[in-house]
Give the backbone structure.
Amino acid sequence: MYISKADSLRWFEFFSQLSENEQPLSAKQTEIAYAVLSQIELATEALHETERKKIPGLKTLKDRTYYIGNDAHFPKGCVSCLLGSGLTAIRKTNRCNAACPFCYDYGMLDSIAPIGEGMWDIGGTRFRTEDIPMLLDIYPKPSGVAYVYLEPFMEIEKYYPVVAEFAKAGVYQHLYTNGISANKENLRALGDAGLNEIRFNLGASLCADKVLENICAAKERIPMVGVETPMTNEFYKIFDRKYKSVLQTGIDFINFAELHLNPNNLQNYFGENLYMYRHGYVSPISSRLLTLKTMQKAARDNWGVVIHDCCNRTKFFRDLHLKAKEGGWFGLSAYGCEFDEIPFEAFLPVLSDDNFRFLKEEELPKGYRIGELVL
């Protein structure tokens, strides 16, 4: 059903006031809720599509993601994620030296479970460094691995021997950092150990000059260096002012991630216009729009670096690809919603925004209208 925006607002106001005892919704109520989310999603995708078409020289990676720039500088970690054996995450550090409002663990950073002394989490199993050669002998060699969770540079010296083991096996490796605790010495040690790629989250420091200096230092020792940051309004304003300084570091690529929200960070973006992609990630509508706007400028002015639109669409196909590689049944995916229940109140701003319009509206059928008992 193509529910109207007015009816959508009234129903979501009603759903947002229901107590826990009145949850979950009935089948008909859920049908209404899904109809509203679909209307928001369709209108949002139309906005994104309009902006995407304004980007000259736009490319795709087998239609799984969009980017501009020299193919040789497209991050190989993303190729591994989208076309290879998937994103094999290696986890070690459960601490961070920042508290970013966009972080999935916002407000929970002091209660993140440790991996264990001397241990590494690879595929949900705990390993010691000396176990890695046998792991690589037993399993097919992954096309790539990524060091995540939370800030590796909190204890970066522990990473060198593990990086060296995977480098010896010829596995492509990339690492995420906010760059705050990086320096010439530890970046050199990572490069010497065999790290192939490093990604700096400039949103964590809001493009701090010190982090930009560290990116320059990384370029001297690590083959592929880039930026990967969730696109937020705050970051966009800073980046738009300092992008020339960012480009002068010599980076190979910039991944602008579409910000997605969970119960931890939703409060920091409450009041923004949100949408839900394929009943999964909840994101500010502005996030990808700002990415596409930046890509338009980069293409027009020939920035000379790869700009990658790492959006919800990309992540949707990423998870399908990963499950297919694992031999899952047709259509199986790990992609899903971060919320146990639809956060109805969070969608009230977009439904109240007169400038946000649905593409098509119809009168609700009998039995679904406001004032009728919907069971």
In short: The chain has two domains: 1-54+341-375, 62-333. The chain has a mean pLDDT of 96. The radius of gyration is 22 Å. The first strand starts at residue 59 and ends at 60.
